[in-house]
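Retry 2 of 3 after timeout on previous attempt. Resubmitting structure tokens to design endpoint.
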């Protein structure tokens, strides 16, 4: 069993949980994920690690209530226990000295991208982060992102703006200034549609754009095939070969987005994190 050390609601339906898991905390690296099973009849839930403390033996992740299992998880309190926690899984994010790195984060990615940006800063990169949220009352994680960024840009969907346009507007300004202040790398963690849009925006500039395809995962071990994708004509699995991929090398974004929405219905629509009316988050 894995004790819950802390559990808090950051904004409505968005929670941060801290679980005691010494073996996971000892080996966790930026960009990896865990599989949580709440009880012996529970489903496998993949979550990107947003923080860990090897000395205390704890790992953190942020999740959004989107269905029965995450609502059940939200009902647990500090002192309760989860049946299983497996990890760290997946390949760590590629971290090196690139120069000027631009990060775009929304939904679960706001917290999950923090370890990656911290590692990039430690490598001497300059980091500009775009934090996407539906509106100001539902912004979370701002202080954590400010701590690992040289510049933080808030992008909200107020005044009737869609979520995708709110995030891409400041990015377009950065790309327009690319000749004077080059962008050497992009990292995107958010909805499938946002990652796709940004990959296409940066393609003409030849800026390597890393996307995190955690939203595709179901089983988390490659057995179910739900996160199968084509990368430069080769079959890959987000959970085994990723979750980080070069967005310009991903084939068939339409297929991936359609598969992501296969399991969606009106009961799990996340109004606060929708992109153009879809249920992805």
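Retry 2 succeeded. Sequence:
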């Amino acid at each position: 069993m894995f004790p819950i050390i802390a559990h808090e609601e950051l904004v409505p339906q968005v929670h941060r949980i801290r679980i005691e898991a010494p073996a996971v905390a000892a080996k966790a690296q930026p960009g990896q994920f865990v599989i949580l099973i709440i009880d012996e009849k529970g489903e496998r839930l993949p979550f990107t690690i947003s923080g860990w403390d090897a000395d205390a033996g704890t790992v953190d992740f942020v999740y959004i209530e989107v269905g029965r299992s995450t609502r059940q998880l939200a009902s647990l309190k500090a002192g309760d226990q989860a049946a299983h926690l497996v990890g760290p899984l997946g390949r760590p994010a590629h971290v090196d000295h690139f120069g000027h790195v631009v990060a775009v984060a929304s939904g679960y990615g706001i917290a999950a991208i923090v370890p990656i940006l911290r590692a990039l800063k430690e490598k001497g990169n300059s980091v500009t982060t775009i934090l996407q949220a539906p509106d100001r009352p539902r912004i979370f994680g701002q202080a954590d992102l400010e701590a690992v960024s040289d510049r933080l840009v808030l992008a909200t969907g107020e005044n009737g703006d869609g979520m995708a346009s709110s995030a891409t507007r400041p990015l377009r300004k950065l790309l327009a200034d690319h000749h004077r202040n080059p962008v050497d790398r992009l990292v995107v963690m958010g909805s499938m549609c946002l990652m796709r849009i940004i990959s296409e925006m940066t393609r003409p500039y030849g800026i390597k754009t890393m996307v995190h395809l955690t939203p595709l995962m179901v089983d988390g071990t490659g057995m179910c095939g739900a996160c199968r994708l084509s990368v430069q004509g080769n079959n890959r699995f987000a959970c085994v070969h990723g979750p980080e991929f070069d967005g310009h090398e991903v084939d068939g974004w339409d297929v991936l987005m359609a598969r992501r929405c296969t399991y969606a219905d009106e009961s799990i629509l996340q109004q606060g994190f929708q992109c153009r009316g879809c249920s992805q988050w």
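Attempt log closed. Residues 266-281 have pLDDT under 50 and may be disordered.
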